[in-house]
Amino acid sequence: MKKIIVSALATTLFTALFVGFATLVTACGKEEKTILGSGASFPYPVYSKMFEDYLEKTGVRVNYQSIGSGGGIRQLLAQTAEFGATDAFMDDEELQQSEDEILHIPIVLGGIAVAYNLSEKIELRLDGDTLAKIFMGDIKKWNDPQISALNQSVNLPDKEIIVIRRSDGSGTTFGFSDFLAFSNEKWKNSYGVSKSIKWAKDTIGAKGNEGVSGQLKNTDGSIGYVNLNYAKTLDIPLAAIKNGSGNFVKPTIKSISLAAQKNIPDDTRVRLSASSTLGEGYPISSFTWIVLYKEQAYNDRTKEQAEKLHDLLSWMVTEGQQHAEPLYYSPLPQKISGKVLKVLETMTKLRALTIVFSFSAPLLVIGISITLAYGFAEAFDVMGFDFFTSSDWDPVEDRYGVLVFLAGTFLTTLVAVPLSLPFSLAIALLVSEIIPESTYAKIISRMTEGIAAIPSVIIGLWGIHTIVPLVQLVQNQLGYPPIGVGFFSTCLVLAFMIIPFSAVLMREVIRLVPKELKEAAYALGATRYETVRYVILPNIRSGLVAGTLLSTGRSIGETMAVTMLIGNVNYFVENIFSPTNTMSSIIANEFAEAVNPVYYSALMGIGLTLVISTFFVSIFSRWLLRRLSIN
């Protein structure tokens, strides 16, 4: 009878937990009606206005993080954002990183203005070849013969040209370098087209459009490239650029729109380069895209969520276009808007088979729980609820209690997780903020991810041959028996295992900090340390808490390395070096020896307790992450 009761209780418990948690998350989503997006900073002003208007009209909030085009693409591929935003369309290599088809939705057009600061207050004309030579350092003076030939009616000053360029990766740099590569063979072969360029050494780097604009405004003799809206805001002079028809054209809303008066491919991925910019079209123009998955049935997304995203994008390319011109963006030509709406209609909002598969995870959890509960019934028949409150573990006398192992599990976790946090945070800050574009950052990121993939039994072997001898030395110095294995060794090795997992989580949280906040801090003269302390850390504090909880869930169930180092003694921890046991280690050590049915059943009970513990930590972590993403 007790077997039936225990199985029924377990089934009811896990079904209630799953349904309750699913209802909670769904309710939060419906109540807030929030769409999550991230990406390019260039369209941030117009997107902010669009999203503000859309919230007033529909009650749907868009949480958009301006973290750069590359960040938006990464978050889309990681499926942590519902859409990404990019100034440079995803190339074939990037698209191949996803197994599912990705749609490109152009939203507005922008112009990359060539801005300059000359105290002589002259009107300047340039072509692509001359621009390339200036930015490569081949032309160093404003009165260089090649510049003079384009400006014969102007008395150019005999002063050095100071080149201001982006120091961070950006879609603006991609569009500008694309124009230079088309115009100059040396640039094409030596510098190429990229979001990040290895610039000539005499150039001056500045972060973001704000940084470049600020440097230009305050530096006589300077030249740089910025998005039109930033140049207009600071009233910086703009050069007229020679287009494919031989006309010198300044960037305006009209001239940028004219650059898009052409047929575009069905996937909308097109470069509006000088080769196709004729008439009065401005040659350094570009779309800015929102990218999303064509098949929306992923990560348990509902039909309502997919329809909400579809409706937002449809509104942005139609009614939302009214917000483009006041902010110095060019709206989409009507012919292109029509094509974009057809692309949006290809979104698959729900896949029927997904409904069936979506039940596999909860059914598996419930099935495992029923199996463990049924197996535990015999021990429960003997011990009752004393099983959960007793510290006895005596298979000979058939006395079983989980309390020692429950305490060992949570104590090792509560020590190991805080030990890992400083190292995880340091790695995350290094690769995300301190040296984000360097080769070393990529190497460190790959190594961190690689460590996370090492089997725990290998980490256990490393712990036995490296950590244990060191702990024995410490024990000798402190007067403890030099046994090496035990609580402290386990915590050290478990902390090492958590570091890569936690570092990757923190890296993604740091990348969510709006780029504008960091650029504003640097513009005000903040040091890197001050920016990290007063801007980044306050903005990621809640995210770090949620990441820590996920790391806790990861460490609770760790088995092999813990089993090899814990000491496997069924007593509470008496001091930092004491051997003890955890729920996973007792199962791994004694399951093969459990020939007594009650003994076997008690181990199943420990398994059930471990599942319940992990499940509660997971529920709380996911709920907190959901709340953080909404807020």
List keywords for this structure.
631 residues; alpha/beta; D-Maltodextrin-Binding Protein, domain 2; eight-stranded mixed sheet; three-stranded mixed sheet; 10% strand
**pLDDT < 50 stretches:** 14-32
| CATH homologous superfamily label of the largest domain | MetI-like
Class per helix and strand makeup = alpha/beta
CATH class of the largest domain: Mainly Alpha
Distance from first to last alpha carbon: 49 Å
Q: In what range is the share of β-strand residues? A: 5-15%
How many DSSP helices?
A: 25
Write down the domain tally. Answer: 4
> Percent of residues in helical segments?
55-70%
Structure characterization notes:
With 631 residues, this protein is of the alpha/beta class. It contains 25 helices and 13 strands. It folds into 4 domains: 1-32 and 359-389 and 595-631, no CATH class; 35-108 and 287-355, Periplasmic binding protein-like II (D-Maltodextrin-Binding Protein, domain 2, 3-Layer(aba) Sandwich); 109-284, Periplasmic binding protein-like II (D-Maltodextrin-Binding Protein, domain 2, 3-Layer(aba) Sandwich); 406-593, MetI-like fold, CATH 1.10.3720.10. The longest helix has 34 residues, at 597-630. Helix 1 runs antiparallel to helix 15. The chain starts with a helix and ends with a helix.
